[in-house]
Every structure is written in structure tokens, then in C-alpha cells.
Amino acid sequence: LNAALLSVDLLKISKEILRGKGAIGTMISDTVIANDLKGTMKNLNKTTKGAAATAENLNKLVVALNNDNNVVGVLKDSMMGNKIKKIVSNFDATSSNLNKTILNLKDGKGALNYLSNDPSLVKKIDSTMLHVNQASVKLNENLEALKSNWFFRGGIKKMEKKKLEAKQGIISK
Q1: How many domains does the chain have?
Q2: Is the whole-model pTM more than 0.90?
Q3: Mean pLDDT across the stretch 114-139?
């Protein structure tokens, strides 16, 4: 009896979806929404890759500063050093969370389940992506500004010198 009722309910739901009703039905029948969602996912993947690359570059900068023993002592005791550590930590956590979210979306978990109950989620995702892109631009601007800051200039010059020496070592071999 329960299986028969369940089958009837599933048939009703399937028919509604095929008629284009509800969030899932709309997504299936409306190619614009489906294409927008695909585009959003592509942008989310690109942003995640960019965020991971930025985090990796920032981590390399921090490692180089630690290895050079130049301004690290000052950084460890200063508010600036604590802020940079917090930024890196938050950025790594955000990047990790974005990767988990993408994996959940690919596996049919997470936000995709909300689409069936909240059709406005696509707009929210677009808005979030806009904010992520803006934050990424601002982070890049801040990193560029740090390069010209007298406090970091010595460490950055040493990193660039090491890169050049490494590159020349490869070329001469």
C-alpha cells in the first residue's frame, strides 16, 4: 500500500517537472536558466582556481619572508603581522570551503538541493560571484600595494632576486 502511494506521488511529481512547474521543472524547460547556472558554475570554478593560485602565491611570499629572516621579527610582534596571518588563514579557509561547495554541487549535494525550494538562489549565486570577483580584485590591488610598501620592499626584492638567480641557473645549465 505504501509503495503504491509512493509510486503515485512520484508520478505526480514527475509530471509536474515535465510540465515545467516548480524550480526543477523551470530549470529543465528553461534553457536560459540552465545556461545561466552552467555559466555561474564555470565562473565559480575559475574564481576558485584563481583564489587557490593567489593563496599559493601569498603563502610563498610568507615562506620567503620567514626564510630570509628580514622583517619577520617585526611582523611577528606587530599588528600588521597578525593581520596578514589572519588574512591568509581566512583566505585559505574560504578557498577550501569553495572547493567543498563545488564538489557537493557536482555530487548533487548542497546548494543544488535548495534550488528545488528557492528559485531565487541563482540570483543570490550571481550576486555572490560578483562579490567574490570584486574581493579578488581588491586582494590583488592590496598585494600590489604591499609590494611598494617600504616595510615589505626588502623581502620582495630578495624573492625577486632568488627567482632571477634560479631562472639564470636553469638557463646556464
Answers
A1: 1
A2: no
A3: 76
